[in-house]
Amino acid sequence: RKEVEQDPGPFNVPEGATVAFNCTYSNSASQSFFWYRQDCRKEPKLLMSVYSSGNEDGRFTAQLNRASQYISLLIRDSKLSDSATYLCVVNSRGNTPLVFGKGTRLSVIA
Amino acid sequence: DGGITQSPKYLFRKEGQNVTLSCEQNLNHDAMYWYRQDPGQGLRLIYYSQIVNDFQKGDIAEGYSVSREKKESFPLTVTSAQKNPTAFYLCASSGGSYYEQYFGPGTRLTVT
């Protein structure tokens, strides 16, 4: 089983739609969780950390289910500028390397 | 401005030559990382360093070497032993509360 698994997509959605991405991780000792965004031919950028209680940042909501080892990202009112690859990322311990999923591609269409 | 810089942005080399990619950070982060990304693929860890003068191999270290003589700097050398060096190379550092990583803009290396 891969350490972090994501549906690669692509997800093609119209502007204004709500879209949800899911991710599962295999290491039950994982401590920190993140969503990164990567635009084509650019570096990944931190979108948001994922907290146990769930958290929201504008149109973006992240949820964590430790029992099921599952992380989700919900994007409401999609914009054309949301088109990117979204990476699910997990940290097992301290300042050790993060484990990156391969990403889910999102295309928002006018 | 605090951040991570990588230079150059594009690099072209002939096969058989060693090449060194630069990575500098002024975030005062202890840990630094090198990743490789091939077209349409995920990130693969090459080397990482959690402290000055110490580093560990990642998943694909063969054909690469690193040094960490200063906290701010973590250069990567792509040696002639690396069979398929053409790729997008990303440097990152971490040291925040949740150990999130921040990336430099990357170096796109082409070897012909």
Gist?
The complex is a heterodimer of chains A (110) and B (112). Chain A is mostly beta strands and 110 residues long.
Q: Profile the largest sheet of chain A.
A: 6 strands, mixed
Computed over alpha carbons, the radius of gyration of chain A is 13 Å
Which term fits the overall shape of chain B? globular
Structural class estimated from helices and strands of chain B: mainly beta
- Residue fraction in strands of chain B: over 45%
Number of strands of chain B: 11
Kindly report how far apart the N and C termini of chain A lie.
37 Å
Tell me the distance between the termini of chain B.
Answer: 36 Å
| Poorly predicted tracts of residues of chain A | none
- Major sheet of chain B: size, sense and barrel closure? 7 strands, mixed
Estimate percent helicity of chain A.
Answer: under 10%
Shape of chain A: globular
Count the strands of chain A?
11
- Of all protein chain pairs, which has the greatest interface, and how many residues does each chain bring to it? A-B, 20 and 24 residues
Kindly provide the radius of gyration of chain B, computed on alpha-carbon positions and rounded to a whole number of angstroms.
13 Å
What proportion strand of chain A?
over 45%
Average pLDDT of chain B: 94
The SSE order of chain A reads EEEEEEEEEEE
Give the low-confidence spans of chain B: none
Report on the architecture of this protein.
The complex is a heterodimer of chains A (110) and B (112). Chain A has 110 residues and is mainly β. Chain A has no helices and 11 strands. Chain A has strands at residues 4-6, 11-14, 19-25, 32-38, 44-50, 55-57, 60-65, 70-75, 84-91, 99-100, 104-109. In chain A, strands 2, 4, 5, 9, 10 and 11 form a 6-stranded mixed sheet that branches. The model of chain A has no long low-confidence stretch (mean pLDDT 94). Chain B is an all-beta fold and 112 residues long. In chain B, the strands form 2 sheets. In chain B, strands 2, 4, 5, 6, 9, 10 and 11 form a 7-stranded mixed sheet that branches. Chain B has a 4-stranded antiparallel sheet with strand order 1-3-8-7, with no helix packed on it. At the A-B interface, strand 5 of A face strand 5, strand 9 and strand 10 of B.
